Amino acid sequence: MDIVKYMTPFLGTWQGQNRLRLMPTDEYKGSAATATVKVTAAHFASVAYTWSDGENPQEGLLLLAGGASDADPATAVWADSWHTGKALMQFSGPVGADGVLRLNGSYPAPPGPDWGSQIHLHPADGPGGRITMHNLVPGEDPYQVVELELHR
Question: Is 45:7 a contact under the CB 8 Å cutoff?
Answer without folding.
Answer: yes
